[in-house]
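Researcher: Sequence of Haloacetate dehalogenase follows. Predict its structure.
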Amino acid sequence: MFENFTKTTVKTSGAEIVTVVGGEGPPLLLMHGNPFNHLSWHKIAPRLAKDFTVVCTDLRGYGDSSKPEGGGDHSDYSFRAMAQDQVEVMQSLGFERFNAAGHDRGARVLHRMCLDHPEKVLKAGFVDMLPQHHLLNNVTRQWAKFSWHWFFMTQDAPTPERMMDADPEFFILRKLSKTAQGTAFFGPEALADYIRCIKNPATTHAMCEDYRATFGIDLDMDTADFDSGRRVDTPALILWGEKDGVGRNHNAAEVWSRYATNIVQTATVPSGHYLQEECPDETYEVLQGFFK
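Model: Prediction complete. Tokens:
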């Protein structure tokens, strides 16, 4: 799926991050969402590699990257820690400044990266994500029902982990079946690998720690930044699936206007939440056009 890409593991100050690199041209970092790994970009990354040096990673806790224990304030899985990993990965490859796109949790990592390391990100593509500061301060019945896993996975250990580990394949397939298509549009090899990864109890624990951090330390950071007037100043793309909860239940452009000062482009594709898997051609066109 990543022919002509080189796979390696990069040791950062806080984790070991699985990394694949391919192509030539300006650097472009692609970050996946939950419950995936770098394979979520397999339909798009090789095409983008014709114009960019594409870097895809497994976020800490996901895929085959290392999985710190977490605990305490869950800061091991804060978006600040994840963003620091990614900056160090890019530095190890010789890229002090780079373009970046993130889907879902990866977009949350990118949001924090743009706030903590604004000098690093040339352009930022936020794919099907609304800032958690907005979501958690404006919980609606529709969003809570659609995004039920947020409230489940943030519960104290070991409750969600034990329940997920009892039948991890059922859990992941249920979570991914957000539309009538179910998981039909996922690449079979990629889907099998997502299932392989979630069968590791360390992965389910890390995923829950990620969500626990979101409700705690991440929200605290976001609140402090928002209240002080800090916003994303990086040239930004806001892209979402028109059939997903972001497209159906929110005014994404209006919400993002409160968190980013330099929105260059907003766009939709005719998909649910998993844009790059369900509508890879349309998603590729938007990303390639924005970052070129």
